[in-house]
């Protein structure tokens, strides 16, 4: 059955998660520009026209302050190398603090600078923190951030000194969110001296993943948690204070077949020609259920499945003239247990995908065969889905669903994961680079030959050296 995506007025009773699209009482809309429901219904006569820039900026600011700029997001930033191994970790907070009248948001990072123990397992003293100011946002001035309901993408953007491209995706659910940053480094074909010509591709060499929870927020006050507590969510904390329905459970096992079900809800999309639009999703067809195919639909996909129902995917290599999908899917809640406070609660599925483009050449005005530079990387499209489980798939056994989900690079034990430094810190950064790709990537590599000793040493010294496409 083909997916049914119908442009609709997003009212509170229209679909699960409809509050993600409802207008904020803090935002004033121009009656002549957009309705209170943000979008008009599609008529049989034609498409809904793209909204103007002012209305789009208002919608973006509303979603940003509703789902992201809620306070201090604390998590353990874990960095994975190309092989899926954790190479570093850092306890840190992303602070998105709005002012009193919601007209600006200050962005900073708080990094724990030492491992000194405090009286509380999830707390630490203020003198053990280093706060790094990042920037300030305002309506219409959100930098390279773009929101889509409960999701947000930051980038793609280039880190100035290294030339690394960074693309960050985040999904928020209740008092928690998952954030992943993909970093692609410049590469050249084997046999081509790095730096002797413009980069021929951008290859994934590390990814940062953080499972974050709000601290010092209204959510903690409602749950009776110590509002002075800081630090990332932990298995011990989750066991002592089980999350209430509507909030995520980060530390739990999620079997692969859990991804395979009937899902329905709402979707938010953005494109450069269509702008922001909201949709109702009645059912996902098999082709659109990418969250159930860990290794993606093509060979050029790098992926990880992580504990707590998290799946990330991105292109192994991005080349000029081709776009690549960066994806994050998350199962934040399980089905409610009968006789408990969660009785009747349906599993949730959140997905976000960003279509990124890079290495697009700038051609000389005098010579159309001469490239003079690259265009900055750009966002081609964005989609975020907020879905609830509506039933089981028909004629599909658990074994068949598990078989369809094979191929993940997986972390079975959260305690075995090692840790990360923030991607923004380039000084003295060292990136682990694999000397061989996973089996499915190797099968797609064109003309791959065994690496000689010198190639291995060169790649270990600099991950940009002669990495195969």
Low-pLDDT runs of 5+ residues are 1-45, 407-451, 463-469
Structural class by helix and strand composition: mainly beta
Count of domains: 1
Can you summarize the main beta sheet?
10 strands, antiparallel
Count helical runs: 6
Proportion in helices = 10-25%
Calculate the terminal CA-CA distance, rounded to whole Å: 36 Å
Global outline: globular
Mean pLDDT: 74
| CA-based gyration radius | 22 Å
Number of strands: 20
Strand content: 25-35%
Order of helices and strands: EHEEEEEEEEEHHEEEEEEEEEEHHH
Q: Secondary-structure map with pairings?
A:
Blueprint: E1 5-7, H1 53-67, E2 71-81, E3 86-98, E4 105-112, E5 129-137, E6 145-148, E7 151-158, E8 165-173, E9 176-187, E10 201-215, H2 218-223, H3 235-240, E11 262-271, E12 275-281, E13 301-306, E14 310-315, E15 317-318, E16 324-330, E17 348-357, E18 361-363, E19 371-374, E20 378-391, H4 398-404, H5 439-444, H6 453-461
Antiparallel strand pairs: 1-12, 2-3, 2-10, 3-4, 4-5, 6-7, 7-8, 8-9, 9-10, 10-15, 11-12, 11-20, 13-14, 14-16, 16-17, 17-20, 18-19
Tell me about this structure.
The structure is a single chain. With 469 residues, the protein is mostly beta strands. It has one domain (5-182, 211-442). It contains 6 helices and 20 strands. It has helices at residues 53-67, 218-223, 235-240, 398-404, 439-444, 453-461; strands at residues 5-7, 71-81, 86-98, 105-112, 129-137, 145-148, 151-158, 165-173, 176-187, 201-215, 262-271, 275-281, 301-306, 310-315, 317-318, 324-330, 348-357, 361-363, 371-374, 378-391. The strands form 3 sheets. Strands 2, 3, 4, 5, 6, 7, 8, 9, 10 and 15 form a 10-stranded antiparallel sheet that branches. An 8-stranded antiparallel sheet has the order 1-12-11-20-17-16-14-13, with no helix packed on it. The longest helix has 15 residues, at 53-67. The protein is globular and about 75 Å long. The relative contact order is 0.17. Mean pLDDT is 74; it is low at 1-45, 407-451 and 463-469.
């Amino acid at each position: 059955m083909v997916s049914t995506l119908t442009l609709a007025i997003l009212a509170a009773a229209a679909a699960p998660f409809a509050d993600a699209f409802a207008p904020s009482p803090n935002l004033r809309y121009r009656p002549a520009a957009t309705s209170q429901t943000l979008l008009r219904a599609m008529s049989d006569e034609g498409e809904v026209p793209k909204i103007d820039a002012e209305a789009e900026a208002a919608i973006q600011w509303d979603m940003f302050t509703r789902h992201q700029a809620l306070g201090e997001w604390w998590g353990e930033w874990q960095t994975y190398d190309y092989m899926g191994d954790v190479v570093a970790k850092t306890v840190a907070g992303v602070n998105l603090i709005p002012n009193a009248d919601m007209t600006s948001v200050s962005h900073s990072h708080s990094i724990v600078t030492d491992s000194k123990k405090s009286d509380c397992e999830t707390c630490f003293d203020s003198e053990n923190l280093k706060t790094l100011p990042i920037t300030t946002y305002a309506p219409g001035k959100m930098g390279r951030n773009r929101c889509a309901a409960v999701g947000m993408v930051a980038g793609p953007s280039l880190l100035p000194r290294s030339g690394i491209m960074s693309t960050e995706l985040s999904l928020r659910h209740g008092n928690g969110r998952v954030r992943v940053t993909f970093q692609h480094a410049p590469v050249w074909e084997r046999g081509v001296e790095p730096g002797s010509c413009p980069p021929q591709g951008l290859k994934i060499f590390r990814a940062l993943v953080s499972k974050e929870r709000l601290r010092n927020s209204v959510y903690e006050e409602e749950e009776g948690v110590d509002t002075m507590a800081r630090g990332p969510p932990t298995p011990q904390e989750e066991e002592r204070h089980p999350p209430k329905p509507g909030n995520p459970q980060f530390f739990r096992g999620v079997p692969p077949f859990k991804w395979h079900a009937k899902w329905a809800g709402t979707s938010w999309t953005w494109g450069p020609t269509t702008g922001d639009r909201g949709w109702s999703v009645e059912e996902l067809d098999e082709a659109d259920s990418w969250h159930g195919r860990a290794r993606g639909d093509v060979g050029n996909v790098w992926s990880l499945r992580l504990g707590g129902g998290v799946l990330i995917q991105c292109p192994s290599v991005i080349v000029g003239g081709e776009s690549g999908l960066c994806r994050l899917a998350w199962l934040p809640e399980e089905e409610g247990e009968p006789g408990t406070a969660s009785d009747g609660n349906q599993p949730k599925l959140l997905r976000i995908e960003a279509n990124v483009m890079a290495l697009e050449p700038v051609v000389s005005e005098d010579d159309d065969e001469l490239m003079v530079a690259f265009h900055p990387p750009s966002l081609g499209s964005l989609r975020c889905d907020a879905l609830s489980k509506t039933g089981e798939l028909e004629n599909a056994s658990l074994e068949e669903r598990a078989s369809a989900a094979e191929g993940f690079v997986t972390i079975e034990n959260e305690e075995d994961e090692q840790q990360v430094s923030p991607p923004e810190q380039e000084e003295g950064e060292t990136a682990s680079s694999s000397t061989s790709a996973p089996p499915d990537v190797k099968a797609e590599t064109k003309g791959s030959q065994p690496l000689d000793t010198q190639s291995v040493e060169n790649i270990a010294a600099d991950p940009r050296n002669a990495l195969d496409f």
